[in-house]
Input
Amino acid sequence: MPAPELPRLARTRLYEQVAEQITAWIAANGLTAGDRLPPERELAQRLGVSRATLSQALVALEVIGVVTVRHGDGTVLADARAPRRIVEAIRAHAHRLPEVIDTRDALETKIAALAATRRTDDDLARIDEALAEMARDVAAGGRGLEGDERFHGAVTAAAHSLLLARLMDEIRDLVRETRIESLSQPGRPGDSLAHHRAIADAIRAGDAQAAADAMHAHVVLVSDVAVLRDGP
Output
């Protein structure tokens, strides 16, 4: 009788190991919330890893709330009380990401269609202001994170649906995870800005179908992230 197969252990990816190394380094050096981490090049050399792997590890830590990446200010420790099980926390994010993206697609596609038929001049002005904010940040080399969040908030407000707005508010933190993950991909901020402009143009034109299609295309773009392409 053949021996039963042992369950396979999930392979720990390199960036997950590096994320654990970073949190151990933070603890060993007594850093507290608000302290700045060394520049990426220096930190990569200290840990003996590539810049690409380090960047992916920092994104993972940002998603689970350990650090904050600020354009022009580097990486800042957000919460010194990092989760004890870093890899498990990162994987929990990766596992829920597809469901969050599906939910975004369902809600925001409808929201965009409603915004195209219900938007006011004030709504359009707020959408344009958010686009301008994101464009300025991206042009300066940033990710456009705050402008991105403001844009989606303005589109949601333009739909004039209290219940849909409440539902979006309920998943705000989960959506922010997908936003950080997506905008940290190489070249993604500029692509995302172009998608936002297409959504805004359709809403301004009052074309509900075009707005829904543009939003769906945008959510598909958001779903193309390394953590899902490289699955555990």
